[in-house]
Amino acid sequence: MLNALKTIQEQAAQSLAAVSDPKLLEELRVRYLGKKGELTAILKQMGSLSAEERPKVGQLANEVRTAIEQLIDQKAAEIKLAVQQKKLESEHLDVTMPGKAMPLGKAHPLTKVLDEVKEIFLGMGFSIAEGPEVELDYYNFEALNIPKNHPARDTQDTFYISDNVVLRTQTSPVQVRTMEKQKPPIRIIAPGRVYRSDAVDATHSPLFHQIEGLVVDKDVTMADLKGTLEMFVKRLYGEESVVRFRPHHFPFTEPSAELDVQCFSCHGEGCRLCKGEGWIEVLGCGMVHPNVLSICGIDPEEYSGFAFGIGLERIVMRRYNIDDLRLFYENDVRFLDQF
User: Fold this and answer.
1) 20-24, 267-271, 333-337, range with the lowest pLDDT
2) Domain assignments of the chain as residue spans, ordered by start
3) Residues 185-210: pLDDT tens digits?
4) Which residues contact 216 (CB under 8 A, 6 or more apart)?
5) Cα distance between residue 264 and residue 274, in whole Å
6) Which of 160, 171, 285, 333 could be stapled to 212 by a disulfide with Cβ–Cβ 3.0 to 4.6 Å?
7) Phi and psi at residue 213, in whole multiples of 5°?
8) What backbone torsions phi and psi does residue 91 show, to the nearest 5 degrees?
9) Contacts for 194 with CB less than 8 Å, ≥ 6 apart
10) What is the pLDDT of residues 213-237, one digit of tens each?
11) Within 10 Å of residue 239's Cβ, how many Cβ atoms?
């Protein structure tokens, strides 16, 4: 058996010396060291040896296995080096050729304009607040002066998770949460996603973005609201922009208004872009309702405030003359590459 082991070692060394292919090398490994290999077959016969012979045969078998494994590792390294060298010799690299330009990602148009809006309001002393998208009915409606069975709820098209939990229909709940935690003066904007059960078309989506604004302090007036929003519009659309405020109604503000911007295309004369009206609606706003201040623990006799809600998609569509809201969410690279 000792002679057989030495013979296996010699044959393996001769076979491995001649091999130059990785597949053949693996076949030789299986032939000599595999479960059904020649070395294993020898070791299965050790049960027939005497107690004196077994240690000698076992020691030699381990030495043979180690020697064959070393030869295989050495040959594998040689073959790998030879393949690499052959590849280098066959390939020609022109280091003077210009590299291929890799395509770079760009900010989404919604992100670009949102960043501009944030910078405008940060420059006016506002801070950014956030709140949950899955909201309690209390914060989404009741604390905003919209109690149960209020008709304004019918216009919200709300996604209800349960009787008291909804997907927020506006970012206004962040107002309430902020006023509960922070005493005036307060000056925040709250950008984020909102949800309404709308059918998808060119101007509606079940998911869109709003930017809520809130200022609460002593002696805050409608003039402060108008000055803040006029400055915002001029910084976003240019100093030549003209705005107007129209009376409106929101349950959580009193008085309330909607802000329009004079059409950028026809300058108030009427065209297709503004649907012949000469003005484009941008946002809703108003003075915070005293009931809302009271619910949040702020004395409406001492403090007043204003709030506004900007539809991000709406101002981006006006900014880039985009006429279909769905383009923002279809991720068509041909569309996104324009920005």
Assistant:
1) 267-271
2) 2-90, 109-336
3) 999 999 999 999 888 887 788 999 99
4) 179, 184, 185, 186, 288, 293, 298, 303, 304, 305
5) 9
6) 171
7) -125, 145
8) -95, 145
9) 133, 167, 168, 169, 170, 171, 207, 208, 209, 210
10) 999 999 999 999 999 999 999 998 8
11) 7
3-state secondary structure of 192: strand
- Nearest residue to 214 (alpha-carbon basis) of 121, 305, 295, 119: 305
Token pair, residue 277, equals 């009206």
Architecture category of domain 109-336 in CATH: 2-Layer Sandwich (3.30)
Number of C-beta neighbours around residue 200 at 10 A: 12
Rg over CA atoms, the chain? 38
Alpha-carbon distance of 259 to 281, in angstroms, equals 6
Q: Tell me the whole-structure pTM to 2 decimals.
A: 0.66
Q: Residue 313: is it exposed, middle or buried by C-beta count within 10 angstroms (0-12/13-18/19+)? A: buried
Residue 142 CA to residue 136 CA, distance in Å, equals: 10
pLDDT at 122 exceeding the cut of 80: yes
Give the tens place of pLDDT for each residue, 38-73: 777 776 776 666 777 767 766 777 777 788 788 888
Mean of pLDDT over the chain: 86
Q: Which amino acid is at 279?
A: W
